[in-house]
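Handout, section B. The chain below has 281 residues.
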Amino acid sequence: MDKSRTGIVVIRTITMSIIAILVIFPVYWMIMSSFRTHEEIFRYSKLGWHLFFPVHWTINNYRDIFMDASKPFGRYMANTLFVAVIVTAAGLLVNSLAAFAFAKLRFPFKKILLVIFLSSLVIPYEVIMIPQYLLISEMHWMNSYKALIVPQIVWVFGIFMLIQFFADIPRDILDAARMDGAAWTRIYYKIVLPTAVPALITLGLMTFLNQWDSFLWPLVIINEEKKQVIQVAISSFQSLRNISWGKVLAATTISSVPILGVFLLLQKYYVQGITMSGVKG
């Protein structure tokens, strides 16, 4: 029995290791290729040490993306970080308040409103983007950070995820607090939020990642070069005639660092939040 269990563990470990290598290798290749010359990037395709390590190491790709005054890559990163942080912070507040109201408060037509609200999840973003663009244009928010931030704060999926978590909080605790004279806002800040930290961190990570990877909306709404975000900037390194693969790989490597860093620091809470908000019983 013990030998069979040991064999299963060994097979499982080998399988997971192979999967991990297959997942990590493209990231590793991207990082290594960002230190290659343009001519060398696709020269070596056969299995060998040339595939894993550059033959001629160079930092010109990184130097080029940061030294180009016409495309201030550092400014793009700062813009993206600013927008992502503001949207994440405001989104956590607004979405958690909405989820708390739907999960625990009693008000007329709550179920109908929730169904209508959640039905927007099936509408493609490209359909929503057209009236959203017209609204932003009428408000004269074109080429502004407000256009990047305000429409992205409310996230229906985030509200739905938090509703699943808040629904598990015992109603008796909230009723006891109400009997002691606590207002709903105080209950929200003092009781609900402290118990929802894993779910909030999970939603924060997902929101930050979505904003960091945002491409279509910034491409449409921002025309001023200095206010553009990083994903649109990376796409500008390619054209119909030429693709600067070295710059693309270097820029993609740099843009991946904040996401990987944040995820590695908070991955424990991310897994815990997903588990607690998605499993019942």
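Note. The CA atoms of residues 201 and 266 lie 8 Å apart. Compare this with the example in section A.
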